[in-house]
Amino acid sequence: MDPALRDTTSTWWSRATRWTQLTFTEDDPQNLDLDFWTDVMRRSRSNALCISAGGYMAFYPTSIPYHYRSAQLGDTDPFGAFVDISRSLDMAVMARVDPHAIHADALAAHPEWAALDEHGEPVEHWAFPGIYVTCPFGPYNREFTTEVAREIVRDYDVDAIFANRWQGHGISYSEAAERAFFDDTGLALPRGARDPDDPAWRAYPGWRRQQLSELVGIWDRAVKDLKPHVAFIPNLGSVAVQDLERGLVEEHYPMLFIDRQGRHGDEAPWSAGRNGKRSRSVFRDRPVGLITSVGPENPTHRWKDSVISGAEMQTWIVDGFAQGALPWFTKFKGEIHDTRWVQPVVDAFTLHDRVEPVLSRAKITADVAVLDPTRHVAARAGQPVESLYADNDAHGHGVYQVLVEAGIPFEFVNDGRILDEDLDRFKVLVVGNAELLDDEDCARIDAWVRRGGSLVTTFETSLADGRGRRRTDFGLADVMGVHLTSPARGPVKNNYVALTGPEHPLHAPFRGAQRIVGGTGIVGVRAEDGVDGVAVPFRFVPDYPDLPMEEVYARETPRDPAVVTREVPGGGRTVYVAFNLGALFWETLQPDHRDLLARAVTWALGGDGVARISGPGLVDIAVHENRNGDVVVETSVALVNLTNPFTMRGVMRETLAVGPHSVSIAVPEGREVQAVSLLVSGTAVAATVDEGRLDILLPSISLLEVVHVTWAPRTRTGASR
């Protein structure tokens, strides 16, 4: 398309909803099959392209000194060719640059571009000897990369620049970094092992955040000076967006990207959807794309020219967009050795194209939120947030798995952003275990519960402040009606909790049982029995041995509180579980633990909430609502089938169709059903309305189904259809 005919003042990112990314290798310019890639982009209905341009290596005829050209470039311009192809398909175009390394000739001419180690030596690349890592805080990024970006924007019809690996790799002790750190903090850069008591180590994360934020502003303003509609969007991981200043992101990032390209190890298949929730919990008003690699993408095992199973690739993409993360596939190397990835990408992208018209006009909603403890996990691990994906948060994994199994839709609240406006979106907050909570956060949660919110939490939550200093009691003690008597102990073996006290709704899943499995980490607590609605429906059976077998029996009656509930004046409810419930469920997958937590959430919610599903298999659920002001016009329930022979090992060989499934949706106040349809299968569906809920029976779910309901003003009562 002629650039003069395009509306370059429009928000191109709002139309960029299905992304193709191709990352060139040095030998690609002489081996590209442009017809193949044109066909892939057309068949997949891609409407946006991210394509390699320059930085470490240029794939266009650059005129910038020491901007290394591909040795195979010759008189070709593969970057320009793809820009032309994508424009002919009316696609948005983003040019990829990678500023993380330089060649030896650039180092010799510009030693100030390199990152230095603690001894002042240039840092050689860890994977490819003979090239060198750049310093993110010096003139390479601020001057050279800026010049590269401006050349691309000036000479090509692009909408954005996308930067990979721009944040540095460890601390750079370059002269520029040392000087900037001292000027801003009065300290030398930290050295040696990370020490939270060292003032330099404490100052470094904030200083780094400020430096990187300034850099984004420099880059974005530099390209906008040439073409105002163009954005410079450095890549950020699923939690690393927290490591830039919020105002900076709001100004310069029209959309975000989750560079979590596939399964790590045996992580659960719902991890793709979790990435979407995680990003949304930090920036709810920014579209986000989930980058999916067609090859295996694991921190310790990388086969860049291979292909993962089609079922796994499709599930990653589909669960991502069902939970609000737009589909983006990435292929390393333009030359094709294996085409088995093409059809799975086409099928997954076609599914998105089919449901996008409905889902794009809606927002994901839920009554339940889970506290995402990324800063807590980072602090406990002694790592910066951007280096983590909270993969070691077993408590959070267990909570996530329980809610998916229970068919309860939920969102995230980020522990770096616990604000009234975020809490008030939800009826229930579930905290798997967040030991570190600031006094201000505890006060906000306390006030939210007292005005009607409900809280479900476990183990050591709120026993330390935001800096890790231990409290003598829970920060949330008053609202929960629970007080600390002794710190966590464990590992405890053969622990049980007994059903005690008057009949309680939390007892319901355990009819016929006097006790259920307990924990391996146990916190000693005292409950304010009988005060302000406090109850103790479960108590610990005092410890007894697990061997010899003849000695395995209880000597004492149940005593210490294991689960404490409270009905708070004002309508809120709380549940506190005094053991490591989420982490232990993730480790052992015991149904008692699942049922206890699921029942606690349902009781705290006071019912089934906006939607809930039940049926066989593992199905992820997301509720999308389209509102006209405060009036719900449409409700769409996206159901992603995660069931496969290796369900809890992440790897997928095939998806096993499951069903039937019951879907229950709350009828919005003042509304009645106008129409019910299935967006994927297009088949008829049985639906009835009873006691304010729409009940739908789905015979089967293959990979994805979306139940779409349109609502009309209520004209009569007692309607059923």
UniProtKB/TrEMBL annotation:
Domain Beta-galactosidase trimerisation: 368-472
Matching InterPro entries: Beta_galactosidase_Trimer, Class_I_gatase-like, Divisome_Glycosyl_Hydrolase, GHL6
Positions in coiled-coil regions: none
Gene3D superfamilies: 3.40.50.880, Glycosidases
Pfam families, per the entry: GHL6, Glyco_hydro_42M
Domain of life of the native organism: Bacteria
Name listed for the protein in its UniProt record: Beta-galactosidase trimerization domain-containing protein
Native source organism of the sequence: Kineococcus gynurae
